[in-house]
Amino acid sequence: MTTESQGARPSRQLQLRRVTAASAIYNQLYDDIVALRLAPGASLQEKRIAEEFGVSRTPVREAILRLSEGGLVDIFPQSATVVSRVPVSAIPEAVVVRKALETVTVEALAQKATHDDIAELDAIIERQRKFAALDDPSGFHEEDEAFHGAIAKFAGYPGIWTLLRTVKVQIDRARRLSVPVFGRMHQIVDEHVTIRDAIAAQDLAAAREAMLHHLSTVIPDVAELSARHPDYFC
């Protein structure tokens, strides 16, 4: 091993640690923002975040910059960094993209679903029932994501779900305000059961219609939500 390569190794290790730390910080802040644990307008202080994670400010800045590029954080140089408001104008396009792509995945799965695929969908739905009974929107939302992600994966299109998670992030933030409505979680479970049954029956048309109906109901009434929470939307 050359002296040059020996000297380069610590630098690469340091860079790896920084990237890993930035990713961890990004993931935590992303989850908190989407779940509204960090509400629109909340201040993000680099020093406090760095102390919380036990890192320097460099990975914190990298995480915040990535969140900014994703439309989740507004950076005002020499002033403040805050969680962005939900842009109402971004939601209609995201709705169109989600409907277009999720009808593709559900139809594809209806053509090829195995017994094991259906069993996994059943397990997810059962977990959703439990979270609904516990009135736990956070756990319920995680299983909702798992249900739609599983359909894409079993259909052979996991990349579609990866893309959709980015596209629908503003929808997800708005939905967190609507899911706590009484009875809504149980209604979503029933809609998932209808989708599951259509897939199991290998009825492509029914699967498509069930998914379109479901997505039409899970997309929040943004006008109503923005009227109730004017500080959360722009």
From TrEMBL:
It comes from Aquamicrobium zhengzhouense. The keyword Acyltransferase does not apply. This is GntR family transcriptional regulator. InterPro entries: GntR_C, TF_FadR/GntR_C, Tscrpt_reg_HTH_GntR, WH-like_DNA-bd_sf, WH_DNA-bd_sf. The lineage of its organism: Bacteria, Pseudomonadati, Pseudomonadota, Alphaproteobacteria, Hyphomicrobiales. The keyword Transmembrane helix does not apply. Keywords: DNA-binding, Transcription, Transcription regulation. Residues 19-86 form the HTH gntR-type domain.
